[in-house]
Amino acid sequence: MQPNSRQYLGDILLYSGLGCFSYFFLVRFADIPLRYQDRLLTPEAFVAVMLLFNGVGLGMRYIQLRLRRSYPTFLGSRRQMVLFFVLSGAFLFLLNYLLLVSVKLLLDMPHPFQLVYKGTRLLLITWLTELVIVSQSVSNRFYKDLLAAYRRTRQLEETALRARYMALQTQLNPHFLFNSLNTLVAEIEYNPQGAVSFTRNLSDVYRYILACQDKRLVGLREETEFVDTYVELHRVRLGDCLTVAWQVDEAVREDAQLPPLTLQVLVENIVKHNVISPSRPMAVEVEVVSDEEGFPWLRVSNPLRPKLGAVSGGHGLDNLTQRYRLLCGKEIRVQKGEDCFTVKVPLLYE
């Protein structure tokens, strides 16, 4: 049975029960003479009352479905919500009153529109009981609808977030390919044997890039192995004047994660903006540190030797900052001293 069918069946059972309950109590305990009660409590009368209450109940159901289209506006206005429930309660009271009046009219009783104390008390008791049951049912349905709407909103937000993250991640590939091809052209012209080695390393690097293209996170061990291969690309051009000193425990390598190509961005940033030569080698240090709250960070630091005339676009670090902000709400930390440049990125665990 479909969910909508089950909901309508539940409404029919609810309002049928309310109709039978209301009719029985109003006939049995209101100001209707005993000699008429047996004539009124018949199967045909109960069926008619059930049809009446279901007509009213399904009408309320229709109004509720219409309100679904404007839930944000409806729920944002407390005045409209209060007005809706007050009108629903008044309509339910009027229905019970008309039911009692109709019975008196059918019996040709005098003063059918008047209520004595006993009839008024029973009418109020019946109405309050119905009001509690109907309010609980409507509230539950409102809550389910809002929960479903919240889940749909969350799914849309996650989908949009994932799309933004993937867009930021793919920004790295064209930039990296452009730099690599420039290097390869230079190597082919001046060092053909080095070009062969460079091409092999470039193939390994792009194999990793394609493998993690759709991943939000990769293991720290995978990333460090990739960076070792990536550094080999620069050694073909620069020689043995670029080294990376890893000070990371094996347990951290196995468990920690971070966004793909994080370390590649940091190493590329170092190579792009610093003088690196056999006379001025570059030693990059990578270690795990903890902040004041005990949260682990990966710190990448290098001596600061800025190239003359080099202009920093900051696109790589900005991209990395946005990716971390989308993933975990944290941002990378950049510290620039007089002779040292340090970037710290959060280590993630899932």
UniProtKB/TrEMBL annotation:
Keywords: Kinase, Membrane, Transferase, Transmembrane, Transmembrane helix
Transmembrane segments: 12-30, 45-63, 83-102
Signal peptide positions (record): none
GO cellular component entries: membrane
Residue intervals of the Signal transduction histidine kinase internal region domain: 163-240
GO molecular function: phosphorelay sensor kinase activity
Superkingdom, natural source: Bacteria
Protein name: Histidine kinase
